[in-house]
Task: structure prediction
Amino acid sequence: MSDFKKIKVGIVGLGPVGIILAVKLKEAGCSVALCDKDEFKLKKIREDGITLEGVYASTVRFDMVYNTVAEMQPLDLDYLVFSLKSYQTPGAIKEAELLMSEKLTVVAAQNGIDIEQILAASFGESKTLRMVINYAGNTISANSVKVTFFTPPNYVASINDSRYKEAELFAEILNSVKMTTKNVDSFDIIKRSWEKTILNASLSALCGVGRLTMSEAMNDTVTVELVEQLINEGIDVAEKEKIRFPDDFLRKCLQYLKNGGDHFPSLAVDLINNRPTEIDYLNGKIVEYGKKHYVKTSLNLAFTNMVKAMTNKNVLARVPGVGGELNKRILLKGLVKKRVSPALYKDQNSFLGIDLGSAYTKFTVIDEEGKPVFRYLLPTMTKDRNGVKDILQAIHSSFKVNYSCATGYGRKHFTGCDLIKTEINCAAIGVSQYVQGEKDIIDIGGEDIKVIHCNGDNHVVNFYINDKCSAGTVAILS
Result:
């Protein structure tokens, strides 16, 4: 293995892609600096490092963790990797202008067609590499990711072939830690980016609009038919761009997608959580190139416009004041400190927990210190079908929610959270904040009773749930 200790790499954006890449580069021996806007995430990384589970399993600590790209200027980096969403990239580039040097090579480790051109417009094509990522992960907590799959190889290339050696070295570094990466030329990387984008475009928007996991979408003949049509439209457009795929490309795409797992694609997660999406560089690019060559892309156009319409609606829902008196009534009822103005919390990091129980759905917002700032109870069997939506709108209009978690019987049907945990695990974690060590927890709910046994390390080792609805629970005590 070569000595990579002299190689200095900055990672901008710590979603699953950036976190996994940062860990593997550090394991290869590189000097790695991290940058993200999420202060809570940075705090956890500084304290505990980054943990990977799944395909790759390790915990790695980082000394250089920053909130702005400009703070990395004194490091004199060899590579600056952008693993941000497309809509976040222009702002990061503006900060990164201070890092410009003759030796600096920038890397677009991002999804979509032509995404590397955002970097090339500022840094120049001769300094820009494009990376096509073929691994994925799910966020477990602020500083931990479960690596769900890696279908090797990744691909990397200098987009005009002038920095072939830098691309070769970057691939060599990742290959040294079993993250197989192939250095290709500028023509092949275009093909690989189209290949990956067609795959992403076939499921991402569909899952977001339909609130379907990849597994759910690929196990329904109705949605699989849509997926096939989306892929075929992408192939038709790519061929007009002189990009040729093998005859069995469609079949291989479907096989690949069927192994996607029971989780949401990145774009779907953003749409479900009321965030902007990268639709313009996925389905939107297929539509754009289709218009260029007079190729119909009806289904890609439909999903592009649906995602944009839903995104616009979500943006309006997050604007403070939208909802008027209803938002105000919900906030006044739910605020823990009644005399504190809701405006106090708009710029403070907070975290949302939702317990979807059989009798009540409970909403709790806590601050960075773990103290509750908002609580709300809503009867689960209510005639008001918009009740949950109204409460969530009030919360997101007044609190800066960094992460959210759903638990309870209805958790699997609630797709608007970053994490989903069983009530058994949540009970154990919650009680262990106050009572450390071996213990028994008795949870009397509306429809069942749970007895949970934790060991000395506060981990659940056994539990019991009654087998008859309402037997010995609150339902028969009231």
Remarks:
- The first helix runs from residue 16 to 27.
